[in-house]
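INFO worker-7 received task bundle
INFO bundle size: 2
INFO processing item 0
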Amino acid sequence: MSIVQVMDASYENCHEAIEKIFEQFPLDIDGKRIVIKPNVLRSAAPEEGITTHPAVLKAVIREVVKRNPASLIVGDNPGVFSYGMNEKAFKDTGLMEAAGIYYRNLGAETVQMSINSPYIESALVSRAIIDADIYISIPKFKTHGLTGLSCAIKNNFGLLAGALKAQTHKKAGNPFNFAEALVEVFALKVPDLVIVDGVLAMEGNGPASKDLVNLGKILAGTDPVAVDTVAAHMMGFSEQPRSIQIAAAKGHGINDLSKITVHGKLEVIHGFKLPQSGPPGGAIMESVTALRPKINNELCTLCATCIEHCPNGALTMDEYPSVAPEKCITCYCCQELCPQKAIELK
């Protein structure tokens, strides 16, 4: 039986919820090497709801430091290629200030690891996370056009350094296969504790949507699959996202709500908008792969970020970025990384 905590919180008082979480899920931190990984998709202001909020990260750091770790590292591998963008993303999101002396670019030191997947044979993975005695993941409560939701399992995709994320999208080739690859990456280092920032949640076509919900919740648990199961239920998925199903089938956690003890109020969020593709399970894969990026010319600033990061070269610059449908592998990296939120899925 797995336990998932669902707590009311605001960014002003989230430290109280975080303190209770560390009491509910005690970790043997004293003298241990700790890594905390927030969700830092890209540069964005905290109020955009794209990344973990600095107040949540700061509260988690405080609880860890109180327990006398031998070392503490805070970092992520954002979905960008260059070293300098990692630091910029942390500064722009306010997470650099929250992390303080504990910040580290997790892509700066890596280890080669074999992966049992037809889509990834091996990968460069952040050494700090692999070597950590305790690994704490702090994802956002968000939807995701490719995976259904972006929560505990998806946050582990940040274990991959730099351009390997884009390469994985390309090798998987479609959302159905990507779910399998994602779970294999997730399994490289399953978090010991997951704390989900759901104070400001994201609905619609996340993970960089303009549609935000003042949910006022923080979720937590030591079973990441159970945490994602609860989050997906709250979002209103009628069919569980494929990544959750695969992770549970491989023994990484529980996805049966009847076997999950929820402390707090569990209810489906009224009117919560799911991605246009719906949950990426086998029955609706045709609708998922039919979607293509659509550029909003009024919002587009011609920065070419989408073109630079398309793993399959499906975007080129005409008057505005243009999509070649036959090359698009529906990874939606362009939508994730567009700083102006000028890309929609149609």
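INFO item 0 finished
INFO processing item 1
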Amino acid sequence: MGSDGLKIGVIGAGAWGTALARLLASSGNSVQLWCREPETAKNILQKHVNTSFLPDILLPESLGASTDLLEIVRNSRILAAAPPSHLTREIAKKIRPEITAEHILLILSKGIEQHSLALMSEIFAEELDNLPKLAVLSGPTFAREVALDLPSAAVLACADETAGSLLQKCFHSDHFRIYRSTDLVGVQLGGSIKNVIAIASGIADGMQLGLNARAALICRGVAEMSRLGTAMGGSAETFMGMSGIGDLVLTATGNLSRNHNLGEKLGQGFSLEDCLPSGGEVAEGVRNAVSIQELAERHKIEMPICNAVYQVLHQGVSCTQALQKLLERDRPDEEMYVPDLATIPD
């Protein structure tokens, strides 16, 4: 259901940004979609289709599109930011001149910035001087299925009750169910770590290790996600929900998952260069693997699956070697381990 025709700006005309812009416009909101490429904006305005990412899905005629980012920010109360995670800081710097304390900024990107190891919310808070109210949307949502109005659900994390309630009202619909949370850290970490575990699942499938191995990887992936997430201040319950196990199961098994598809090709023996998506799409797990490896080292958290993926992607270890290292680890004593935060150094 729309929220009294609110003016909403969606930043990023990839598949996810376009799908949510379509959903919002279809609900009666005034929506402008920022496109980096003039040709994309032209196609949306004239043909009502995003030929680059969702070429066979018709968009509402009411959906606007523009390459003028600052104008969209200036004329919108709610902003939904969906750039690739590595471009988040660049976007934040660009929109800073028009951001006010009246804005609500919903983060749609999933990732952790390399080197700084900042979450997307931390980047926006830093670059925008904590002016807008920040929120995060994450969960098991393939953009194409949302754009096709297939039943989907996600979690919206926001510390501000009024802003969170308004965003839920905007995005919730008969076919897109929105749950609420206040755990911005946990929701973001779940959405980032699952990309790396999805690559591991794809590798297992590519090596034809069987469904037992895939299920075990997913289960142990949740354990790794929970260990790091709670060490960084997230709630253990978050990783059992939409943005944790929900998003992980989808991304680690679905044939629309770029991360799983990349891993599957790696498992079949292709080089990383040959596995990377084409056409402007991004497999976030490739970059996330570096940041998660560094976060695990910083917080002294054991994450063997994520470490194995990091070694395959960035240290030249073969999939077979990585698998052997995992199998040679000491016998486990307990199934799930969440660290005692009191024992972790600041």
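INFO item 1 finished
INFO post-check item 1: The domain at 192-337 is CATH 1.10.1040.10 (N-(1-d-carboxylethyl)-l-norvaline Dehydrogenase; domain 2).
INFO post-check item 1: Residues 341-346 have pLDDT under 50 and may be disordered.
INFO worker-7 idle
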